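Researcher: Structure for this, please.
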Amino acid sequence: MNPNVSSLLIAGYGTVTMVFLAYTFRPYFFSTVRFIKHKSLQASSPAQSPMVTVVLPVYNEEKVIERVMERCTSFDYDNYEVIVVDDSNDGTTEKLAKWATKAKVVHRNNRNGWKGGAINESLKFFNKKSEYAIVLDADSLPEKDLISRFVARIEDGYDVVQGVQAPDLNISYNRIAKAAAVIQGYYQLIEQPSREMVGLPVSITGSNFIIKTELLKKFKFTEDIGEDWDLTLRLLSSGHRIIYDKEVVTRCESPYTPEEAIKQYIRWSEGMVRATVKHFRKITKSDMDLFSKVDIIMTGFSPLIMLLLIISTVMGAYLALNNVAFQLVLIPVSVFTLVSGFVTMVASTLKMGVNPLVAVLSEALYFIFVPFAIYASMRGFALKKGHFHRTTKLGYISS
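Model: Predicted structure, token format:
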């Protein structure tokens, strides 16, 4: 091999591999923090009951709408309203009719802006005295004290409080639901609380969060996929603080077919990359500390991690074939890569109380996501807008 070509390949391999390993080490760091460091947020008791608006964007949710409406109209809080924005074209609209006396039900005959558009539409109907807004998804199963716990936390002086979306509501439905729940559970139960513990920025995850009404009206949601990550970046870049409260838990469903899991992952990946590209300069010029900026950008581009793995593997294999000594570098890096993902999934199973062997299936499902994540990432770079595929809900509750 030409020495100059060899040097370029080694430099390229080293650069790509170092970036990939930086991503790979992050889960180890977050998992370690989550298991050895414990921090409980102590909320004060609010002196009064400020007006709270619960927003529920709905699209073809006839299997779960009765369940969530029953919960949302039964909170043990004496000063709140429920606004449902319904874009449905199935039996959901008919089922919502009986709740018109307990909630403001707004029907749209289109899906303009998808979920973000529906939430923005709800702002027109907010009570003028509303101080805080709580956003929930239709498959949420919130506890009766959700509002009071959120209010107690945000009244301590925060702008947004994100609670836990525990994706275990249908975890026993089938193996795909269980594997998908473990993948999602890592972010919800390990990475997000670990970020909070070490002082890194946390993100809004689309549901089960409370935000100051004035901020929601000011920033609104972008009417594209990845609306939650986009709002996160805009809030953080503007100096607003988002905290994660692992004590406020709302159970929800996870995808239960490979097709649904893939489509959900594509939506998340494309939306995150697009929003990160869009707000990149704003992030770098913000007043956030350097570590926070780097971590936010790494998170936004995380769907590209597998592309880095592929490039690193191809370059490393080529170098190893032409230089036996280079195999001493390639082999340990490859082994570490294969083991790291499995360790991450095991950590998630332990937090969720699931048999650790499920980690094998979760890791397999994650690798199935690889080509789709790369495809979605390229769309995020190339396109200004995507398509929102709403994950089908079962209405199934695991025992």
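Researcher: Any notable elements?
Model: The chain has a mean pLDDT of 90. The chain is about 55% helix and 10% strand.
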